[in-house]
Amino acid sequence: MKRFKDKVIVITGGASGIGKSAVSRFLRDGATVVIWDVNEAQGQDTLSEVRSNGSIADFMKVNTTNPEEVEQATLATIQKFGQIDVLINNAGITRDATIKKITYNEWQQVIDVNLTGVFNCTRSVIPQMIDKGYGRIINTSSVVGLYGNFGQVNYAATKSGVIGMTKTLAKELGKHNITVNAVAPGFIATEMVKTIPEKVINLMIDKTPLKRLGTPEDVANTYAFLASDEAAFISGAVISVDGAVTI
Ligand code: NAD
Questions:
Q1: Might you give the EC number(s) for this enzyme (predicted)?
Q2: Average pLDDT by consecutive 10-residue portion of the chain (247 residues)?
Q3: How far is the centre of ligand 1, averaged over its atoms, from the C-alpha of 120 (Å)?
Q4: Which residues are catalytic?
Q5: How far is the CA of 146 from the centre of ligand 1 (A)?
């Protein structure tokens, strides 16, 4: 079913991991997908991997921490594809350290990407969503934003911050038929997981009632639900995709 065939969907951080899986997911459903990612090489690789006959996908090199670059990407996307219907603020980084060891740089880098990047992209795409009276904004939080995590003071602050932004924007933008929701993934088996020792992975699995790690597709499916007409009356929600690890 090509349920997104008339939709233009921007996915930040779409070059890898969860974002890449979301790119494939939306293309399969007929959307026009534009990847905004800072990693050009990986973005181009992803593009050639996910493109199939008839699907429309594009890559734009964007550092979401830079408001001018984001503004240019918004203009370029609208110029090329006419509109932005859905923004998925998926780009995110970690720079883990305990409060005793963390450097100011490690703090600031994570704030810049995970919080200011979300703010920049959202602020930039909103005017044309308001003009059209339609929009879907989906932010990527984390279970860490709900419950904290040892050694992630910077990451937890941003992922909680994203929830505050989501709820505030849901209140501000609802009257324009723009929904704003957040997804809070748990332990997801992306490339990153390959660097984690097996013992730690097994511990994660053990702590998760569904007894497995999540897949990027589990998160991409939730993005797709929130972007769909079925979710038209859902706004300001935070949906955990975590195998019940947080209950
Ligand atoms: P990933 O590292 O595989 O992908 C992140 C992408 O974001 C990369 O392609 C990277 O180039 C891009 N990016 C980073 N900084 C950027 C910037 N300034 N501008 C534009 N693009 C930038 O990460 P992932 O595991 O797929 O995570 C995706 C999202 O899900 C993140 O927000 C992350 O915090 C969140 N999350 C992931 C997990 C997990 O277990 N993987 C769990 C909870 C939440």
A1: 1.1.1.100
A2: 93 98 96 98 96 89 98 98 98 97 98 98 98 98 96 98 98 98 96 83 95 97 98 98 95
A3: 16
A4: 155
A5: 18
